[in-house]
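Severity: low
Component: inverse-folding endpoint
Summary: output formatting inconsistent between runs
Steps to reproduce: submit the following C-alpha cells with default settings.
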C-alpha cells in the first residue's frame, strides 16, 4: 500500500514539474496567438482584414490588433494605426494599406490614397507605394504626408525630418524628401496645392455637396470642378440612391478603372458628379443637351484619359479635373420610373422620400 501511494506521489511531482517547464520548452509562437505590432481604430465605414482580405470587420473606436498581413480600407472614413515602436499613421478617406513585419522590420504599403504619419527616431517602419520605397532618416522625429494614385503618381512632403525615397525602377537612386516636396515620376503639370497642409480650409461660395451611392456626405465640388473630401460637409441623405442609378453610373467609370474600386459620386439630386479611384477624381460633364450619364441609359458612352487629385478638407488637395465625354443616342428612356431623386436638401430635416427603391 505504501508503494502504491509513493507511485502516485512520483506521478504528481512529475506532472507539476512538466507543467512548470512547458512554457520554457515551447516556442513563443506555440504559447500564444499571432504577435500584435500595434492597434488600429477607425470609423465612418473603414474596415480591416486580419486574414489577407478573406474577411472584413468594421473598424470602430475599439482598438483592433495590427498583425502581420493586416489590411485596411478607409472608404469614406479614416483609420489610425498606433504601432508599438511609437509610430502613428492616420489613413485618410478612400485609401488602402497593408502591414507586414519581417524579422522585426515593419512595412506599410499604401496601395492608393493618402496618409499622414509621425515616426520617432527609433521607428522600424518603412512605407511602400506602387512607385517608391520610403525609408526613415533617424536624426529626429519624422512628420509628413504621402499620397499615391495606385499607379505611378505619388507625392511626399515632410513637415519635420526627412525620408529617403528610392524609386522602385531605380533602387540605387536616392532622393531625400524633406520640406521641399518630392513627386514621382515627376511633378504634376496641373496647378496645386497638392497636400492637405498647403491649401486653405475655407469653403468657396457656390460649392456643391457630393454624396456616395449609400447617401453619405463625403465633401463638396468647388465651382472650378475640383473635389474636396470633407466627410460630414452636410448631413447624410435619408436613403441610398437607387441601385439601378448606381449601376448605370458604375458603367461609365473610366475604362481603365472599371475593375478597381471606382466609387461613383452624386449631387443631392442624383446627378452623376464623377468617379473617385483612390485619391484620383474623374469629373463628369453631362452631354451638350443636358442629359446626365447617370440619369438615362441612352447617354452612357464615356471616356477619360487622366484624373485629378481629390482634396482633403482642412487643406483641399486638388489638381483640376478631366471631363467624361458623353454621347447620347437619343434612344428611348426605359428608366423613366427611376429618375435621380431629390433625396434630401442641404442641412436637411430627417424625413422619408418617395421614389424607386
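Observed output (run 2 of 3):
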Amino acid at each position: 500500500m505504501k508503494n502504491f501511494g509513493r507511485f502516485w506521489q512520483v506521478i504528481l511531482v512529475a506532472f507539476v514539474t512538466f507543467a512548470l517547464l512547458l512554457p520554457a520548452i515551447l516556442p513563443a509562437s506555440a504559447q500564444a496567438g499571432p504577435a500584435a505590432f500595434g492597434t488600429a481604430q477607425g470609423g465612418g465605414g473603414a474596415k480591416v482584414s486580419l486574414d489577407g482580405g478573406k474577411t472584413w470587420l468594421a473598424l470602430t473606436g475599439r482598438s483592433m490588433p495590427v498583425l502581420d498581413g493586416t489590411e485596411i480600407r478607409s472608404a469614406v472614413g479614416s483609420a489610425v494605426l498606433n504601432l508599438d515602436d511609437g509610430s502613428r499613421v492616420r489613413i485618410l478617406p478612400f485609401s488602402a494599406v497593408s502591414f507586414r513585419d519581417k524579422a522585426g522590420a515593419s512595412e506599410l504599403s499604401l496601395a492608393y490614397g493618402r496618409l499622414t504619419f509621425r515616426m520617432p527616431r527609433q521607428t522600424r517602419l518603412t512605407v511602400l507605394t506602387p512607385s517608391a520605397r520610403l525609408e526613415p532618416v533617424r536624426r529626429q522625429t519624422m512628420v509628413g504626408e504621402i499620397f499615391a494614385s495606385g499607379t505611378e503618381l505619388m507625392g511626399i512632403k515632410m513637415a519635420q525630418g526627412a525620408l529617403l525615397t528610392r524609386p522602385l525602377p531605380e533602387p540605387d537612386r536616392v532622393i531625400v524628401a524633406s520640406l521641399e516636396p518630392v513627386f514621382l515620376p515627376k511633378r504634376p503639370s496641373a496647378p496645386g496645392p497638392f497636400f492637405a497642409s498647403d491649401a486653405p480650409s475655407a469653403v468657396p461660395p457656390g460649392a456643391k455637396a457630393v454624396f456616395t451611392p449609400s447617401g453619405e456626405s463625403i465633401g463638396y465640388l468647388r465651382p472650378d470642378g475640383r473635389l474636396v473630401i470633407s466627410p460630414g460637409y452636410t448631413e447624410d441623405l435619408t436613403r441610398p440612391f437607387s441601385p439601378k442609378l448606381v449601376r448605370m453610373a458604375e458603367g461609365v467609370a473610366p475604362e481603365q478603372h472599371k475593375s478597381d474600386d471606382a466609387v461613383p459620386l452624386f449631387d443631392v439630386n442624383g446627378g452623376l458628379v464623377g468617379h473617385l479611384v483612390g485619391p484620383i477624381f474623374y469629373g463628369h460633364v453631362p452631354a451638350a443637351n443636358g442629359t446626365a450619364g447617370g440619369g438615362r441609359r441612352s447617354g452612357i458612352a464615356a471616356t477619360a484619359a487622366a484624373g485629378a487629385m481629390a482634396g482633403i478638407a482642412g487643406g483641399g488637395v486638388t489638381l483640376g479635373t478631366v471631363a467624361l465625354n458623353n454621347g447620347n443616342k437619343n434612344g428611348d428612356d426605359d428608366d423613366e420610373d427611376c429618375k435621380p431623386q431629390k433625396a434630401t436638401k442641404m442641412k436637411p430635416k430627417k424625413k422619408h422620400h418617395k421614389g424607386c427603391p
